[in-house]
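REQUEST FORM: STRUCTURE PREDICTION
Request ID: SP-0412
Submitted by: Lab K.M.
Chain count: 1
Length (residues): 326
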Amino acid sequence: MKHLNMGILPGVFLSLMAVAAPPATAQAAYPDRPIKMVVPFSAGGGTDAVARALAKTLSERMKQPVVVDNRAGAGSTIGTDIVAHATPDGYTVLFASAAYSFAPAVYDKLPYRLDDLTAVAVVNSTPLMLTVNPSVPARDARAFIQLLKSQPGRIPYGSSGVGTTLHIAAEHFLRSAGATAQHIPYKGEAPAMTDLLSGQVSFMVGQASTAVPYVKAGKLIALGVTTPRRLASVPDVPTLAESALPGFSAYGWNAVLVPKGTPRAVIERLNAEINAAVGSPELQKTFDDLGLDRMDQMTPEGAHAFIVSETNKWRPVIQGAGVKGE
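STATUS: Completed
RESULT:
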């Protein structure tokens, strides 16, 4: 009978364990540390509010902090560039708005390529609202359009920056109305809203979720919403389509993207968690309170197709309005 060399058994055992055990990186369940959600706008605006609500719910679901990092500027391209060049490991994600789909038409050269980012999920659509400072002598959309036409290019309006959703929507409104105005871009919706409330600018096509509380408080006058249907939160405010501009429609949206090369398993996990979060009673209530519209759940491929469609839809509007980034 042959005797085993007991001296080699520990080495054999460790070798077998090494073969049987997967690498440590494969063992680590995603996420195992905090996730940074880059919001390419200033804190306090409508996009920021949605991002923080989603981040809170995702943190609870994924058992890791999801930390909002505001990186405003250049029509959202600064924050987008940060994510485009981040490590593709799922720990840096972009909370994009419709400005992401506008950027290729607004800027002759971007610091990133569109294929540097991969779509994960679409979160919501965002109704917009035309509001004016109470000092403006117009109380409905038709009267306001006549006022704009009587002072071509002189009445100032605010936006969250060149090429952002609020800028393009306002230009779409002006072109549809056959009017012109003076654009005053800000680094985010929050500072633009501050100046609208103080009367430094006269009007804005802003996120309804931001404007509604001020409308209800009498601090702003609502002239119309940009969606095909009236909003449940302010049912007395007509749509621009029914009051002055038949067929008019404009809205914002938010989506989550990650750097190209992010593992498919991570993208699928994020997609599943985001869709589940958006469908949760807590986030549904938040969306209702903010006046946001929920969209049908999408796969990463569906989210990609949606963004491509939005990019193609708005390109001729942007080019026709002559909007160019600085």
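NOTES: Residues 33-126+252-321 form a domain with the D-Maltodextrin-Binding Protein; domain 2 fold (CATH 3.40.190.150).
Reviewed by: T.R.
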